[in-house]
Amino acid sequence: MNSKRKTKSVVVLGASTKEQRYANKAIKALRNDEYEVFGIGREKGATVVDVMIYDSFEEIPEVELIHTVTIYLSERNQKVYEEEILKLKPHRVIFNPGAENRSFYALLIDNGIEAINACTLVMLSLKDF
Questions:
Q1: What was the pLDDT predicted at 65?
Q2: CA angle, corner 96, sides to 93 and 100, nearest 5?
Q3: Which domains does the chain carry?
Q4: What is the SS3 string spanning the chain?
Q5: Residue 78 · residue 71 · CB < 8 Å
Q6: Ordered per-residue pLDDT tens for the chain, 129 residues
Q7: Which residues of 107-123 are buried (b: 16+ CB within 10 A; e: fewer)?
Q8: To 5 degrees, how large is the angle CA 106–CA 110–CA 115?
Q9: Cα 13 to the chain's mean position, in Å?
Q10: Distance CA 91, CA 106 (A)
Q11: Which pLDDT score is estimated for 2?
C-alpha cells in the first residue's frame, strides 16, 4: 500500500453512528483503507469503529493537516461549516450525492480548493480516492 496515501487525513462531515447512513459506511471504508479519519456530526463524543465524532473542526487534533473533507450534509446544513472549511484550506472537498451545493462549490474553487461532486464509497471501491 502506498505510504503517502496512509498519511492523508479525511474529515467526514455529517458523521453518524447509524449503520445505514452512508457517512457511517464511508468512515468504515476509509478506516479499512487505513486513512486517518475524523468525524463531525451531532453525536459528539460517540465513535464509529475507532473514529471520534466532534461537533466542530476546531476540536480536531492537528486540523491543519486535513487533506480531504467529504460532505454528507444537505446544502442547508452545510452553511454553518462553510467558513471553517474555507479557513482550513483542505486539498479537496467531496460533495457526496444529496450534498451538492453549487454556490459553495464555486466558492471553494475561487479559493484554490479542489471541489468535486462524487461518491466517496465509489471512489474508494475504484481505488480512485
A1: 83
A2: 80
A3: 3-125 (3.40.50.720)
A4: CCHHHHCCEEEEECCCCCCCCHHHHHHHHHHHCCCEEEEECCCCCCEECCEEEECCHHHCCCHHHEEEEEECCCHHHHHHHHHHHHHHCCCEEEECCCCCCHHHHHHHHHCCCEEEECCHHHHHHCCCC
A5: yes
A6: 333 444 689 999 999 999 999 999 999 999 999 999 999 999 999 999 999 999 999 999 876 789 999 999 999 999 999 999 999 999 999 999 999 999 999 999 999 999 999 999 999 999 999
A7: ebeeeebebeeebbbeb
A8: 55
A9: 5
A10: 15
A11: 38
φ and ψ at 91, to 5 degrees? -65, -40
Question: Do you know the residue count of the chain?
Answer: 129
Q: Are 95 and 108 in contact (CB under 8 A)?
A: no
Candidates 30, 35, 26; CA nearest to 2 is 35
